[in-house]
Amino acid sequence: MHLYSGTPWWLVRNGLEAGADLRTGAMPRTRCDVLVVGAGITGALVADALVADGHDVVVVDRREPGTGSTAASTALLQYEIDTELLDLARHIGDARAAQAYEASAAAVESCIAIAAGLGDSVEIARTTSLYVATRRSEARRLQREGAARRAAGLVADWLDAAEVRTRWGIVCHGGLHCAPAATVDALRLTRALLRRAQDGGARIVARHGIEQVVDDGTRIQAMLDDGTAIESRWLIWATGYELPATLPTGLVALHSTYAFITTPGADLGAWAGGPLVWEASRPYTYMRTTTDGRMIAGGADLAFREPKARDALLPRRIAQVGKRVGQLMPDITWQREYEWAGTFGVTKDGLPCIGAATPGGRVLHAMGYGGNGITFSVIAARVLRDQLAGRTSADAPLYALDR
Prior knowledge:
By secondary structure, this protein is of the alpha+beta class. The protein has helices at 9-14, 41-52, 69-72, 85-92, 94-116, 136-151, 161-168, 186-199, 307-312, 314-328, 373-388, 396-399; strands at residues 4-6, 31-37, 57-61, 76-78, 124-132, 155-159, 175-184, 203-206, 210-215, 220-224, 229-237, 253-262, 276-279, 286-289, 295-303, 336-346, 353-356, 363-367. It has three domains: 4-72 and 187-250 and 350-399, FAD/NAD(P)-binding domain; 76-183, no CATH class; 253-270 and 286-346, no CATH class. The protein starts with a strand and ends with a helix.
């Protein structure tokens, strides 16, 4: 499955050989504590956390590190998930819904701290997010949503249409102004995390896929496509939106999204350096700025069928996103430079899948679905680190595969 088409900006900016500055190659040893499958942002966060806890880690990816779904990410980090708090509460109860949102807010802060600890090579910027009502009927719903978030201790201030237009030039019926939020170069973050994990002893095997996994209940043996067998105590699937066979059928549905980035120096008006923006309508358009004066925008999502069908729609869907941006921000001027399509997964409640498919299993999952993949990956790294250390995470039941 191709996870993207077109030219994702991160690959252009950081070089198409995204793993060129990492030490990758053949396995010098074939045993480890933990085998992480996937060298994107999720696998990098998991590997970094486990190495810091003293585990012997091997990371395997059939591509260059970071060039799968990470390359297609638009990297908007926010505590909101695709399922609004009030809607999530109807699925899982008020307390658990608030807990999930609180965990996401903490994960944004954690990601900012992690990136700051990696030095100047990682570009991350703290910001806010604006969840806008683009239909009049949505305004009252968002005001109720904001009240529920504030009751849960979250920052979610209601701004009316006039204030949003005055502050950022956005045409809507009001919106929730929320924090924390951030933007990040997902590929640079991935590479920096993998370098640190390597410095701590992790080994990375690129351009080799997993052909077979055998779990005897005590040890796991994974066979690579070159015939190498890697034996581990634990295996963690961190494969983005390429679904492993161990994931229960029907748990995740695949969707496609379409995104573009403008040329630098776009005239973004009052919105320059402003909040992340996304719509309360579904499917929603989402937008962010970059430090070099660009805009990244995406949306026009639809159910995924297969790569050729998704990619054939790229020009039409990108045009739809551009039209929507023009309606939301009529005062800005910009020109597209690169555009791409990507695939992502969604669950019924909007939460990720973290943990084993069966109780006590040693094959684990770090699958951060929905619009918050990076934030959920931070949570997955923490939850799985605690599990492997024999600690109980209070948040683990929220993301269990059998929830």
